[in-house]
Amino acid sequence: MKLSLSWIKDYISLPDDLPLHQLARDLTISTVEVEGMTHLSSQFEHMVLGVVQEIQAHPNADRLWLCLTDIGSEVIEIVCGGTNLRKGMKVAVALPGAKLRWHGEGELIELTRAKVRGIVSNGMICSSSEIGLFDLFPFTSEATIMDLSDFDCTAGTSLAKTLDLEDIILEIDNKSLTNRPDLWGHYGVAREIAAIYSLKLLELSACKPVAPNLQVTLHDPSVSPRYIGLRLDGLSTAQAPYHIRSRIWRLGLRPLNGIVDITNYVMLATGQPTHAFDADYLKGNTQVRFASEGERLLLLNGTDIDLTSTDLVIADDEGPIALAGVMGGKRDSILPQTERIFLEIACFEAKGVRRTSSRVGLRTEAATRYEKGIDPERCDLALTLAVELFYGSYPDLTLAGFTDNYPLSQQDKCLTLSFSWLTRRLGKEIPRETIAAILDRLGFKVSYDEDTVNLVIPSWRGTGDVSIPEDIIEEIARIHGFDNFTPQPISIIFEKPVNQRKMDLDREIREYLAFRCGMNEIYTYPWVSDSLINTVIGTTEGMFSLIAPPSPEERLLRSSLIPSLCKAVAQNLHHSDSFRLFESAKVFFDRDYQSVFDSREFLPHQENHVVASLVGSLDQAGLLFREGKGVVEALPRYLHVESLTMNQLQKPPWADDFLWLNVFSGDESVGNVGLLTRRVALACGIKNAAVVIMELKLDSLKPLPSRSNPYTMISEFPQSSSDLSLIVDRVVKWREITDVIYSVRDQAGLLRDVIFIEEYQGPQVGAGKKSITLRLVIGSFHKTLTSGEIEAFSNSVTRELAKHLGAELRSQ
């Protein structure tokens, strides 16, 4: 989601000494993840407002003109082919150094002073498409110059200032907004920033218009708890005022006409979707009901869908006219001749909107907001703003009808908890007055006595976001500041060792990459988009496809960790030029299905992979590649696996033509290391950085053979040794002797070890015999043994050996 900082400033006054990067960091730490910031004016550098003073025919071309243009500091001559040029016209002038697209197509190019048919042109008078403003200033003829005569600025004023585009656009990660429906509009974000910095928030008043009553029937208030409808006459589909068009354009929406643009503006401001129907095409009574089986609806985007009994629709006497909370129908859409509308401002059940949106495969701006759980009270803010904008844009407007169906008004939700419980859970004692102030800034109604605090949850947080006492802990901690908490170690007790080789290997490689190689671990989602896979891997063949993906663009489960890593690298380049990342996770393949936990359930083939990246400047590519190669070469030593070899046999699709290697364990290919090719890097949004990537199959790494090494506690009492020389038959094996001795240990629990000293065969011990000298290591975990106890244990060993193996003590 994109946010306009200047729009946010309509509701709060940010401190003058607050750096932009600090605002982004504080928002990321406390509320939502700010992925990037764009200075909108940067795309209009070296562009100014010019005033055409004189137009002369070009001596060498019939369709070109020589325009003497005032740019404030001087009057320059510009060659131009515009068909609508006139003396006194205010125009957008691109000076040498500006970046634009010829005729609005192709890559950005830097403008230079050049001769055009023999005449030097000192700049360029631009059409809107050449500087990326076609949606704001559309035209029908390609040679139409952007006319800025209505803007009250003087020649030489920067174009960004002239067009009020000196704005900063914040890019917010949508996933961090999932449980915060109140933040899907600028006013909600402004309210959050006000809470973080203790700023005064502009209170938006809510007022209901006075007009004749409209008839709207709600068949099931549980799925449509509130529905506001207005009949507005005296409208047109002319352009909306510039400030409305400008604001929705800079956030990625294309201005269409005054009516639609106002509905989009209200949604972006308050987070409350609205929809306008052409009132002339509505037949009879408007109602909100479930569709009947067999009904169909032609949507605004031209899709003709079959409706089911679970789809909530807006309908008139002739049938469905809109898919509630998702998209309007084409029959009653806003047309060029529309003069009367029925404006809908409603609240729909989040679960139902999500179900219908997923079923028909539509992810609209409205559905995205409704499915998060919008509170019905927000309709009042949207209603007031919508009426204000329509009256301000259409002087001849008439409010011909109004209804506010609110049968199930939202009830206040309350929580009661204690300060002592908050202190235990927070791990820090925060003064009660501070806690109350934090919650008050967040919109909670707070009352408290000595240890009990009573809270009324604000309506915009009461649709599922805040519902249990633990939610209050999160609210206090994030606004108080996580940096203000002192980390405390977690106390744990290990009762017995568990040997899990796969878990040990995963742990060891994480520690190796993090501690020895200085990398940072990341976690990414297992689903990836088709476009990202095709860009990096080159094919989606063999990949597992989800029936109900989190979004239509991300329907595949990853078969490699590299695409997600490339995406993470591009995101982190916003914050640092040099870093190292790694991830250890599962990948999935659409084959070899197995029933692992339940015989009724079959899972696709899964493998454990690890991927890592080294990121630096372009001139460090060779150094980074050698460093990555070294990381792979040293890995077996620290993971206690068989050695790895590297060779060039088959180049990975994402790798550079020269800097790449296949990795082998024995004859088996277990991974790759290589430099990311520039083509793939640019397609992933990685600019001006060299990225070396390593990916290995963890399951294919072969552990070194080793003996079992069970844990034995060390006694705090001294141990003693006793040497025995025994004569036994030559056929008696050392294993038989130790088995008998350890059986004695099992009874007494004193034997710590048996050590072989020497063996002798010869005439002194007799034919068919041999002499074995061994050492008994004896000790107790409870006391220091006396000489008598040591001798008694040695004698018991001798007796057992004599009994089972016929052993005799050898005389000296």
Q: What is the top-level CATH class of the largest domain?
A: Alpha Beta
Integer tally of domains: 6
Could you tell me how far the N terminus lies from the C terminus, measured between alpha carbons in angstroms?
93 Å
Morphology call? elongated
CATH superfamily of the largest domain: Bira Bifunctional Protein, Domain 2
Rounded to the nearest angstrom, the radius of gyration is 38 Å
Q: Please give the largest β-sheet.
A: 7 strands, mixed
Quaternary form: single chain
Named CATH topology of the largest domain = BirA Bifunctional Protein, domain 2
Question: Mean pLDDT score, rounded?
Answer: 92
Q: What structural class should be given to the helix and strand makeup?
A: alpha+beta
Q: What topology, given as strand order, has the largest sheet?
A: 27-31-32-36-35-34-33
Low-confidence blocks of residues: none
User: Helicity range of the residues?
Assistant: 25-40%
Beta strand count: 40
Instruction: Label the CATH architecture of the largest domain.
Output: 2-Layer Sandwich
**Count, helices:** 19
Q: Which strand-content bin applies to the residues? A: 25-35%
